[in-house]
Amino acid sequence: GISARLDSVSSFMTSQWPKKYVQDKSHRARVSLNVIRSILERQVGMLTESRPNIHIKSISGNKAAAHILEEAISGFWEEHSIQQVLTDGIVTAQRNGFAPCYVPYDSSLDFGRGDMSLDFLPPEDVLFDPTIRRAAELQRGDYVIIKRVRTIPNFWDTYPVRGHLVEPESNLSTYEQGGGGQVQSPVTQRLFSVWAKPSNRQTTSQPAAIPRAYEHRLYYRDRTLDAKNPWIPDPSLPDGVRPNYLYPRLRLIVWAGSVVLYDGPSIYWDGRFPVELLDWGIETDHPYGESQVELLRSLQEALNVLVSGTVDNVRLANDPPWITE
Asked: Do 273 and 221 form a contact (C-beta atoms < 8 A)?
């Protein structure tokens, strides 16, 4: 769940002590040797140090077309920083157990001419068919839901008919301004709200310069038949006919808030969800992988306790306590 994911992120960063030791307010030293980060970074380096060498050869002998396609693929790799994106995805999978990779066609990219993008999304922003038991079986499911944050002007450009009906989300389009003039974005508010001290200063909510809202995309394997022609002749099948689906590939429903922006066939001709799951570890009962941080947490905590005990002993040997009567 979300709490387990937050625990993995804190263990990866700095919180690497058992809770019973954290609650202890004594003078004992608390040394943290961040072995988890070192191990994870080493694994990421081993997986990403070799960059694929793309070479396309034309069967028909059209060397010019092969060269153009090869340069286009190499240019896409550099333009979208695929190497860095893959690194971020692997780190996310190591911390959380899996990382959803979203590969959509976005008509707003490349100055409105459209282009593909490669994004690793937070696990909580992707919802898929619960009958899926392995990450490799995602394409066998019936639906995938993607949630992303987009600006209101981006809705206008992408959906010119109904985009103007989208209203900004209050938690994405406002910020708190304190009496001292300090401004925090919604992201920093969530990050530092845990450590925020009570204050007598009044805060006011101010509208952000760029309003935003959540966009939800449902890719659904709709098996509704065409009412006019529900069956198509197919001599290769035993019954001689096959179903004529209204959405033979996928059905796409896009909404923001209570506004439906699009409801129609998916633009992807292969009929696949534009999502892949990068799972870490081997799990046969669920597609959520196995967190590498969780596997190393007990080792990290034991190492910190042992090293801190050694430091305490050295301090006592160098500066022994004096007892007087």
From this structure: no
